[in-house]
Design goal:
Helix content: 25-40%
Strand content: 15-25%
Radius of gyration: 17 Å
CATH architecture of the largest domain: 2-Layer Sandwich
CATH class of the largest domain: Alpha Beta
Order of helices and strands: HEEHEEEEHHEE
CATH topology of the largest domain: Glycoprotein, Type 4 Pilin
Distance between the termini: 17 Å
Strand order of the largest sheet: 2-1-3-8
Structural class: alpha+beta
Largest sheet: 4 strands, antiparallel
Shape: globular
CATH superfamily of the largest domain: Hypothetical protein ph0010, domain 1
Number of domains: 2
Length: 190
């Protein structure tokens, strides 16, 4: 997580390596349980954080997106959020059919632990690739994690054009009446 002192936003504590391993095992175990499988034991040194934060769980199959669901603001402990979002990413992302048992061994799990979203005065204040973006425009709301723009090599305006497309608006629609919040994320995966 970029813990820049100029962010002006509270950031969740940094995760230890043991907490990252514990959260990844928890996410995989939650999906396994939905298939009626017994989750494997967490790896040595795995622990779970006891604090609250929002999180997204992203599933990839051979590098391709297979599901991504998250909660920007926690309504409970981070471990509970990760467990719930792993199940939702596997079975509740409307862009994809529910994950099949045969696909399960192939998926790679990525977790993004969020700082609380903070409003910014305008799109010029968005720092790509440091910030994830929440855009509200014409009654629609969309989110991009910080790594989305970074992985695609997008600049700020290209990112916002794609975010507008994601919510069903035309590119550039964000230039009129949109509001923005930004957040940072600590991203880790299998």
């Amino acid at each position: 997580m970029n813990r820049g002192e100029d962010s002006g936003r509270p950031l969740p504590p940094c995760l230890t390596e043991g907490e990252k391993r514990g959260l990844l095992a928890l996410a995989r175990g939650a999906i396994a349980e939905r298939f009626g499988m017994t989750p494997t034991e967490p790896p040595p040194g795995a622990t779970l954080p006891r604090w609250s934060a929002g999180a997204f769980v992203t599933l990839h199959d051979g590098g391709a997106l297979r599901g991504c669901i998250g909660q920007l603001v926690a309504d409970g402990p981070l471990a509970d959020v990760v467990r719930a979002m792993a199940v939702e990413a596997a079975f509740g992302d409307r862009r994809f059919a529910p994950l099949s048992r045969s696909e399960f061994p192939r998926i790679a799990i990525e977790i993004s632990v969020m700082s609380p979203p903070a409003p910014v005065a305008g799109w010029e204040a968005i720092d790509i690739p440091r910030h994830g973006v929440v855009m509200t425009c014409k009654g629609r709301r969309g989110v991009f994690l910080p790594q989305v723009a970074a992985e695609r090599g997008w600049d700020r305006e290209t990112t916002l054009d794609h975010l507008a497309l994601k919510v069903g608006l035309s590119p550039g629609a964000w230039r009129e009446g949109a509001t923005f919040s930004v957040f940072e994320a600590e991203v880790f995966g299998e």
